[in-house]
Amino acid sequence: MILAGETRVAGPSSRSFVPGRSVVPGRSPDLAVPPVDITGLHKSFGLLQVLKGVSLRAERGDVVAVIGGSGSGKSTLLRCVNLLENPTRGQIAIDGETIRLKSDGAGGLVPADAAQVRRIRTRLAMVFQSFNLWQHRTLIENVTEVPVHVLKVPKDAARATAEALLRRVGLYEKRDTYPAFLSGGQQQRAAIARALAIQPEVMLFDEPTSALDPELVGEVLSVIRDLAAEGRTMILVTHEMTFAREVASRVVFLDAGLVEEEGTPEALFGDPKSERLKRFIRSIH
To answer: What is the pLDDT of residues 139-154, one digit of tens each?
Structure first.
């Protein structure tokens, strides 16, 4: 995953950039291998245990909705997947490749291979609550920045792809506009276009509508719904329960840093087993 503000030296200087394919040279995904496989993940901040042994798998084409109350560990889980946060214990595998971690000498873990982390992050894209667009760049510049300067995609190809993505999210006419002149919903749709520009194998959404005014939520959810219909692999942290029920192939309910219950939307929302999930569902109705 490439983050706003990051600069890195990329690999080969002229990658081919074909819509619908991974930008990782010479790599095609193994359809039998889960894109994301998390086992026994723990994360502590000092004495505070946020994740207490979470295991989660996303099969290819899955839309996994992660739900739960405030402080349940949902966002921390996503941030550990792409190592924005380093786990305290546990294992993370992306497309069958286990991220190598080593002790940090203080009871936690850190990446053991920086090159591996850079490579794996090209397979992941994350959409944040707060958009994270470069405010000093136009929308078209936001979308082409990483493909051109990090992935070394030819400028003409990157721009053509960026224009197609902006058209797709309904922002082609705004391509030369700066983020400050857009609504929150438009900025989040632009952030989704920027995430798609690296052609990720997995998309991570961290409550993408939580910072939006209610009347703007629908336009962002519509874009995500279209992506789900394409069969993209996604892990979505959300408080939009109706949306999770309609779009997700599987729902994971986190409570106090543990997976309390998981299953199909029909099972979790229609026939919850745990008392904690029953109380959660009652609280949102």
So the answer is: 999 999 999 998 899 9
Asked whether residue 155 is domain-assigned, the answer is yes
In a domain, 16, yes or no: no
Residue 102 within a domain = no
Residue 67's region, left for phi above 0, alpha for psi from -120 to 50, else beta, is beta
pLDDT digits (tens, 9 = 90+) for 50-100: 999 999 999 999 999 999 999 999 999 999 999 999 999 999 999 999 999
126 CB-near residues (< 8 Å, 6+ apart): 1, 3, 78, 82, 84, 195, 203, 204, 205, 206
Compute how many other C-beta atoms are within 10 angstroms of the C-beta atom of residue 247. Answer: 20
Q: In CATH, what number is assigned to the domain containing residue 173?
A: 3.40.50.300
Write out the residue range of the structural domain in which residue 161 sits.
Answer: 59-83+115-283
HSE of 173, CA atoms in CB hemisphere, 13 A: 1
Strands 233-237 and 63-67, how do they pair? parallel
CB 133 within 8 A of CB 152: no
Question: What is the pLDDT, as a whole number, of residue 29?
Answer: 65
67 forms beta bridges with: 253
**Residue matched to tokens 């081919």:** 16
Reported as a single tens digit per residue, the pLDDT across 89-125 is 999 999 999 999 999 998 899 999 999 999 999 899 9
Stretch (H or E) spanning 69 = none
Is residue 236 included in any domain, yes or no? Answer: yes
The number of distinct structural domains making up the chain is: 1
Question: Using CA atoms, how far apart are residues 42 and 206, in angstroms rounded to an integer?
Answer: 19
Q: Would you give the DSSP letter of residue 35? A: S
CA angle, 156 as apex, 122 and 19 as ends, to 5°? 50
pLDDT (0 to 100) of residue 284: 82
